[in-house]
Each structure stands twice: as C-alpha cells, then as structure tokens.
Amino acid sequence: MIQGGLLHWLIDLIKIVAVLAAAGILGSWFLREVRRTKLSGKPWYTPYISPPGLLIFLALLLPVLAWIVHQ
Questions:
Q1: Structure confidence at residue 1 as a pLDDT band (50, 70, 90)
Q2: How far apart, in whole angstroms, are the C-alpha atoms of residue 40 and residue 6?
Q3: pLDDT of the residue at 2
Q4: What is the torsion angle, in degrees rounded to the nearest 10, for the CA atoms of residue 14, residue 20, residue 21 and residue 26?
Q5: Which domain, by its residues, includes 61?
Q6: Which spans in the chain are helix H?
Q7: I want to staple 47 with a disulfide (CB 3.0 to 4.6 A). Which of 7, 14, 28, 33 is the partner?
Q8: For 2-60, what is each residue's pLDDT tens digit?
Q9: CB half-sphere exposure, 16, CA atoms < 13 A
Q10: pLDDT at 56
C-alpha cells in the first residue's frame, strides 16, 4: 500500500503531466492551422478564429474573467 504523502505527490504529478500534454496537443493543433493558413494564402488572423485559436484565447482569458467575477 502506498503511503498518503506519496500518493498525493503521484496524483499531483499525473495532473501536471496531463496539463502539459493538453497544452502540447493544443499548441500543435494551432501551429498546424497557422501553416495551413499560410499555404492557402488566407488572412493572418484566420488561425486565431479557428477552434484551437479560440480555445487558446479562452484559456488566456479565463483567469482574467475569474478575477473580475471574484471582485
């Protein structure tokens, strides 16, 4: 049986790895959209209004919204 402290450390490590993996997947998806946009000659802002661009924007905006709501 795993001790309590070690179990909490392991769970925290799994959470960190999951967040980093999700960020890597989202970043890769966004970069793919940027490359696709450049190759097709679309306007520069097109990747930012694609699904990965909007998800990144929401992820950056979420702490600000939480702060505003908390006030």
A1: low
A2: 51
A3: 63
A4: 150
A5: 4-70
A6: 4-40, 51-70
A7: 33
A8: 677 888 999 999 999 999 999 999 999 999 999 999 999 999 999 999 999 999 999 99
A9: 6
A10: 96
SS3 35: helix
Please count the CA atoms within 13 angstroms of the CA of 11 that sit on its side-chain side: 7
The 8-class DSSP code of residue 48 comes to: G
For tokens 């679309």, the residue is: 42
- 11-44: buried (b, 16+ CB within 10 Å) or exposed (e) per residue? eeeeeeeeeeeeeeebeebbeebbeebeeeeeee
Count of domains observed in the chain: 1
